[in-house]
Amino acid sequence: MSDRTEPDGRRARGDASRNVILERATDLASIAGLDGLTIGRLATAAGSSKSSIATLFHSKEGLQLATVAAAREVFTARIIEPARAEPRGAHRLVALLRNAMAYSRDRVFSGGCFFAATAADVDSKPGPVRDAVRAALTDWYRYLELQVEAAIAAGELHTDSASALAFELVSLTEHANARSLLLGSTEPYEVAGRALAERLRAAGASRDALELLDQ
Amino acid sequence: MSDRTEPDGRRARGDASRNVILERATDLASIAGLDGLTIGRLATAAGSSKSSIATLFHSKEGLQLATVAAAREVFTARIIEPARAEPRGAHRLVALLRNAMAYSRDRVFSGGCFFAATAADVDSKPGPVRDAVRAALTDWYRYLELQVEAAIAAGELHTDSASALAFELVSLTEHANARSLLLGSTEPYEVAGRALAERLRAAGASRDALELLDQ
DNA sequence: ATAGTACGCGAACGTTCGTTCGTATACTCG
DNA sequence: CGAGTATACGAACGAACGTTCGCGTACTAT
Questions:
Q1: What is the DSSP string of B144-161?
Q2: With a 7 Å cutoff on the CB, does B8 touch strand D?
């Protein structure tokens, strides 16, 4: 590297460094899990030093928590925010499912869905990191469920249990992610998409709500 | 278990040690993944030494392969073999689903389904271990699909695509495993069980075939 | 009986892990 | 301006990693 003795005022924002590092960290963790996310590998991947990362995040647990938070922001920006353009209920529900599938299919993170990749190696050891991953997933599940409930209240869907229907829908999206990674194919997304549409149609979803799934 | 402890037994001792170690190894890997399965921890868990494990399995990769094979045997013994008592088709399909849910719910491995726990941290790095895990899962998926096809051929089920229906069914069982581990609750198995029954009923499954799910 | 093979363990190897310390530099604030 | 804070790095730490070697011991094979 060249001389860092430039009196420029860019040193103020360590947040910029943090963001660069977290961008790599979320990607690395989606591949190797939150355990496999080591400070050494992250340092070389981000072009910095181990001690820099240590001082920026204070500890490995701090790094993991910041990584989960960063991944959650991406998740929200990619899935939740765009769906707010659709009215609450069936339309927003379908938009959420479509966005979730696209977020996995487009490999926003190299290892597919960040939370699917990290949930496994986290729910065996208690601590704030597990709590953070759990909270992200349960909030996501709950938000889907809320849209199902809203759709039922609006007469757009008919089913015995909103939570059961939400369970079925998320099962399909997550298995599409898992099997796509397993087989290295995008076909599971099409299979899951058709199953989602069929399931919603059976629950009484209108055709124009389901159209969102084909995009 | 100890049927073959003949006094003149050849290297029964070595095989016995291997079996003891693999029993702990499958359990450990279901919790920490095949990467988190370290020789040191396994040694203390099995009450042996690091070097013993190294000589018995030649390398970490050898240990991982043996662990996957051992887990696969348990999977087969718990899920496939008992289902052979049912006739090919809808009955055996339902028995397989019921056994798979019980295998996860009963925590045959402490970390839930072995392959769900290890698939994540394996499908990002090529090699024989990933191939072994992949083969186990694809064989399982294919076997389920075969039963769906047999059920269709026998007029027990009606659906456009056997593979799509099998996809939906396995989605539910795997998500039940994942969410049970996430929430520390057995309720997801009941939700998934009801969804499985409902889906099969919609495909024309007979009542006596579905009765198997309630056991 | 002799040679050969498979265990089983302790000890050490080189590497990587997370963490800490010292130091240099840049920005913020009293 | 000076005190304090934050970034960034190199160096080093103890611990754990996978692996290898040597040395016994038990069993098999010829």
A1: HHHHHHHHHHTTS---S-
A2: yes
| Segments of chain B with pLDDT less than 70 | 1-14, 215
Distance A19 CA to C30 C1' (A): 30
Q: Is A152 helix (H, G, I), strand (E, B) or coil?
A: helix
Three-class secondary structure of residue B83 per DSSP: helix
Distance CA A72, CA A52 (A): 24
Give the percent of chain A with pLDDT over 90. Answer: 88
Q: Is the pLDDT of residue A11 over 90?
A: no
Give the chain B residue nearest A124 (alpha carbons): B31
Q: What is d(CA A152, CA A148) in angstroms, rounded to the nearest whole number?
A: 6
Average pLDDT over residues A159-175: 98
pLDDT of residue A2: 32
Q: Considering only CB atoms, which chain B residues are within 8 Å of A178?
A: 119, 174
Burial of B127 (0-12, 13-18, 19+ CB in 10 A): exposed
In the block, tokens 């966005």 appear at: A99
Tell me the CA–C1' distance in angstroms for A57 and D14. Answer: 21
* pLDDT of amino acid B16: 82
Return the structure tokens found at B130: 């990933």
Confidence tier at A5 by pLDDT (50, 70, 90):
very low
Query: Average pLDDT over chain A, rounded to whole?
Result: 93
Residues of A in contact with B136 (CB under 8 A): none
**Closest nucleotide relative to residue A50's CA, C1' based:** D9
- Chain D nucleotides reached by a protein CB under 7 Å: 6-12, 16-22, 27-29
Closest to A148 (Cα-Cα) out of A91, A100, A63? A91
Instruction: Please determine, for residue A177, whether its predicted confidence score (pLDDT) is greater than 50.
Output: yes
In this structure, chain B runs to a length of 215
